[in-house]
């Protein structure tokens, strides 16, 4: 036994890279995650965006364009909530996380991989939605608006990753997918992601500003059409930053509580 | 008993010092003292719920101690250097099934500063030809071998194996034992938990038998086997269980299946485990000359071991 093994020098970027790479491979081979996460927003868009795409909305934007922003938000939320929520809850609850914790794996690599994947899936959903809208629903944006919309949606994954982490640390491995759905679907509906808020009862118009997806959807809308957004960009960014901070705080408390229980 | 801290402590792979762990009012471990030297394999032997997994979790820094202290190479088990020097094989509910064996090993190897080459890990764990198979398609025994590979891939100095051969057939079990022996042969240390005396006997220099969180016996496999070795006496007798327990050599008494109604008085069929069958039978016959259906067989190791972990109890607990 030599003393030289006492060094813990490792190639950290390589660990982060491999953790992310294998998180991706693991997930891509799991149709139960990939298909619903990507297919739901796209199928919705085919039905409502392409089917009823010519209806006029607030401002100059038509329904097909509005729904790119709102289903994009819906897709980002799903990828993030499922990836972080169900993903962490299952590995935590079934002992795999403990096996990893016995190794020198940096905990940051574990979470980075999961967040990277949620962002990647968000991007895939967004680009597929853009393609459907452009090819089949006649959506035309200024050339600079497409990449900007993509960027907004990718960054928009962050608050929902934080929310997912709360589920990941509070829910059991079997209940987590159901809990995620119970958050995902009502939040999406009440934020006007499926049916525009203008078409919903007034109650929802008052409620929406208290829900994070509303603010991301409004930011996405501001890219496709200035007139379509309620409130200012700064307000929505501030709201999302506030939600992110709050979610991270709760997630950290849940993490500490679980550490005490699981590793106490 | 206390162990003074000396410079040499950093070379002692495992040291439990008066370690107690309670979950609420229930003690899972009580004042456990245990040391493992370099190149030594210690088997922690005990029935389910004896405290084996609790000890393993504390050794890996996955659980805190209620009292006492656990040191790995003289330091807190959570120290990064100990995470590098310790490899663990735990009982795990579910491993990501879509990753291939090679991919699992590749990822875990990356965590360590000086991992073993993939081909060597595959050979050591007996995974030849399985590297490209997804984990979910493996048999139970093959899955256990992958977990063994993941414990080994960082070239640790201490291996912690929590019931490593559960679900393995005889051949796979012996192959894994052989690899564990090679590991010790390189001067490295192992803590192994098992509830099979046979497994502890095959591997360990020292066996520590625990039950209800307390060490009930420890020694070399020969010593432990001597304490466990015994014979099973079946008979039909009038003597009560309490009386039988006072006979020389008797370690446990349990009711056998049928109760005989023939003859005068109540007679019951019993199974007696004895470390000294001849003197037990002599005393039995002198106290109850009408003892019938006398039958003496060698006790199985498992039965003998159960008698050792809890001599006062009937065989009510399952060895699962």
Question: Can you walk through the features of this model?
Answer:
The complex is a heterodimer of chains A (264) and B (320). Chain A is mostly helical and 264 residues long. Chain A is built from 11 helices and no strands. Residues 1-6 of chain A have low confidence and may be disordered. Chain B is elongated and about 70 Å long. Residues 313-320 of chain B have low confidence and may be disordered. Chain B has helices at residues 52-59, 80-85, 101-110, 118-124, 140-152, 170-185, 197-203, 221-228, 241-246, 277-287, 301-309, and strands at 14-23, 26-36, 41-45, 67-72, 86-89, 158-162, 189-194, 206-211, 214-219, 231-237, 250-255, 268-274, 292-298. The two termini of chain B are 34 Å apart. Chain B has a 6-stranded mixed sheet with strand order 5-6-7-3-8-9, with helices on both faces. A 4-stranded antiparallel sheet of chain B has the order 11-12-10-13. With 320 residues, chain B is α/β, with parallel strands linked by helices. Chain B has 11 helices and 13 strands. Classes of the chains: A mainly alpha (264), B alpha/beta (320). At the A-B interface, helix 1, helix 3 and helix 4 of A face helix 2, strand 5 and helix 3 of B.
Cα-to-Cα separation, first versus last residue of chain B: 34 Å
Mean pLDDT of chain B: 86
- Residue stretches of chain A low in confidence (pLDDT < 50, at least 5 long) are 1-6
Helix amount of chain A: over 70%
State mean pLDDT of chain A (0 to 100 scale): 90
Q: What's the β-strand tally of chain B?
A: 13
What is the count of helical runs of chain A? 11
């Amino acid at each position: 036994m030599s003393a030289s093994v006492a060094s813990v020098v490792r190639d950290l970027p390589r660990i982060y890279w491999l953790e992310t790479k294998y998180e991706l491979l693991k997930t891509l081979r799991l149709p139960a995650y990939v298909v619903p996460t990507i297919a739901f927003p796209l199928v919705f868009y085919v039905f409502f965006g392409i089917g009823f795409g010519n209806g006029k909305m607030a401002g100059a934007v038509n329904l097909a364009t509005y729904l790119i922003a709102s289903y994009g938000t819906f897709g980002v939320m799903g990828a993030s909530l499922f990836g972080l929520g169900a993903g962490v809850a299952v590995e935590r609850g079934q002992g795999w996380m403990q096996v990893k914790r016995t190794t020198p794996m940096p905990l940051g690599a574990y979470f980075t991989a999961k967040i990277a994947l949620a962002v990647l899936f968000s991007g895939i959903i967004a680009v597929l939605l853009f393609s459907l809208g452009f090819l089949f629903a006649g959506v035309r944006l200024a050339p600079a608006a497409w990449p900007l919309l993509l960027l907004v949606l990718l960054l928009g994954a962050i608050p929902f990753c934080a929310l997912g982490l709360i589920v990941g640390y509070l829910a059991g491995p079997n209940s987590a997918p159901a809990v995620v759905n119970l958050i995902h679907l009502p939040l999406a509906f009440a934020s006007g992601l499926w049916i525009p808020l203008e078409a919903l009862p007034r109650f929802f118009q008052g409620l929406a500003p208290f829900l994070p997806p509303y603010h991301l959807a409004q930011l996405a809308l501001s890219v496709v059409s200035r007139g379509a957004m309620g409130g200012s960009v700064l307000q929505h960014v501030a709201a999302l930053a506030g939600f992110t901070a709050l979610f991270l705080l709760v997630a950290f408390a849940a993490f500490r509580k679980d550490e005490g229980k699981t590793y106490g | 008993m206390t162990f003074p801290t000396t410079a040499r402590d950093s070379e002692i792979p495992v040291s439990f010092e008066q370690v107690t762990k309670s979950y609420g009012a229930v003690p899972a471990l009580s004042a456990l003292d245990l040391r493992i030297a370099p190149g030594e394999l210690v088997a922690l032997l005990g029935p389910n719920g004896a405290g084996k997994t609790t000890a393993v979790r504390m050794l890996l820094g996955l659980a805190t101690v209620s009292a006492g202290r656990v040191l790995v190479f003289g330091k807190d088990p959570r120290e990064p250097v100990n995470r590098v020097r310790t490899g663990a094989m735990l009982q795990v509910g579910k491993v990501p099934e879509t990753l291939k064996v090679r991919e699992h090993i590749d990822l875990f190897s990356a965590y360590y500063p000086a991992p073993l080459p993939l081909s060597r890990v595959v050979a050591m764990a007996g995974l030849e030809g399985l590297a490209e198979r997804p984990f979910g398609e493996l048999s139970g025994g093959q899955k256990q071998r992958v977990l063994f590979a993941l414990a080994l891939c960082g070239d640790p100095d201490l291996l912690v194996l929590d019931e490593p051969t559960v679900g393995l057939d005889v051949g796979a079990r012996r192959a894994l034992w052989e690899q564990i022996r090679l590991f010790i042969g390189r001067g490295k240390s192992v803590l192994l938990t098992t509830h099979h005396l046979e497994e502890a006997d095959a591997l360990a220099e020292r066996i520590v038998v625990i039950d209800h969180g307390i060490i009930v016996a420890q020694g070399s496999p020969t010593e432990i086997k001597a304490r466990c070795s015994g014979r099973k006496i079946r008979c039909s007798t009038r003597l009560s269980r309490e009386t039988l327990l006072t006979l020389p050599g008797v370690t446990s008494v349990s009711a056998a299946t049928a109760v005989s109604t023939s003859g005068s008085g109540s007679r019951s069929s019993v199974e007696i485990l004895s470390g000294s069958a001849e003197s037990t039978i002599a005393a039995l016959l002198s106290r109850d000359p009408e003892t019938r259906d006398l039958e003496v067989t060698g006790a199985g190791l498992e039965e003998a071991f159960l008698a050792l972990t809890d001599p006062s109890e009937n065989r009510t607990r399952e060895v699962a």
